[in-house]
Amino acid sequence: MLKAKDFNFKQTRALVRVDFNVPLNNDFEVTDTTRIDAALPTIQKILKDGGSVVLMSHLGRPKVAYQSVQLGAEAKFSLRHIIPTLEEKLGQEVLFVDDCASEEAFTISKDLKKGEVLLLENLRFYEDEKQGFDDFAQLLAQHGNVYVNDAFGTAHRAHASTTVVADYFEPQYKMAGFLLAAEIENAQKVLNNAEKPLTAILGGAKVSDKIEIIKNLLNIADNIIIGGGMSYTFFKAQGGKIGNSLVEEDKQELALELLKQAKEKGVNIILPSDSIIADDFNNEANTKTALNNDISDGWMGLDIGEKAIEELTAVILNSKTILWNGPMGVFEMENFSNGTKKIAEAIVKATKKGAFSLVGGGDSVAAVNKFGFADKVSFVSTGGGAMLEFFEGKELPGVKALS
Ligand code: AMP
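Above: inputs. Below: predicted complex with adenosine monophosphate.
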């Protein structure tokens, strides 16, 4: 896979797929610039080399196709809103065209001069984008003579701009941007080159969301910690009393099967031994500590307990590679955030001792941000779904299209 960092963009017009799917407030101002910041190194490299840049992205989930409704109510999804932020970050004017494939759009992109940046309108105003239609991809390809994909967060989608468009560029003219390349390199460090012991920490609400990732990790991990809501299905499956804790009844057999497979493969599946239980799903609920196979009816486990924290911390501190996906409890509620925070602290400590730590997937990323640990782990992945699919062992279409 070619990388933008190794390419000289002098006299090229680079079509760059970025992820500018940023949150906006009611005044359409960008409230979190993380994704824009993440795209800057690629854009700046192209401009510094003496190229010009055509940026394309999606924003939100507009319901209608551009052709059928000229924006109207969907105007809130216009990428126009992010221009002031982008101009401020780049320190230069950003040209904008309010569609992706009109004559006007092609004229502007073809006339771009060295150092200029053009932003196209939201790709998802076109039904053809998500359908991955060839015709639309071929039109998009006309905007550049080099294609750079830097949108890791959508690399698991075979959309026109993320995958199909790459077919219209010769192998030496399609490549990964800085962000996408970093995501792949760091994920591969865990998947293919992990220094042992490798500990995966999985949490969150549902076993069903994490089945494929657990199955794949059984082939590479030494330890798999299963915490959060999904752990209670494992306790119940083994005959434990879990009260009103979260459970997926129909996944109990699968939980037993995963435990059996782990044993056969010599992988330690580590379940937290105690929980902070509550008499209501509420921050103000009454709480006490209970062993995880002995939770009374009317009570539910909403966080891991002190004993579990101690045991899991010991495993984490003993690891050389750590992958974390999913919180250990209902961390959004202050009174049930302690376990997730303590596990994050343990990962930070292990990282300081020399371990490689990767945090990926929506809620664990939110957790490290909430606790201020994002710069104290080795790598925080920006691609929730894409990172999960990568760890499930799937080939990402957006990445495959570049090689
Ligand atoms: P996921 O998206 O699968 O990573 O799940 C994240 C969600 O799981 C968060 O919103 C947590 O509040 C929730 N969660 C974690 N632990 C528990 C628990 N013990 N009971 C209910 N929900 C939980």
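The longest helix spans residues 34-49.
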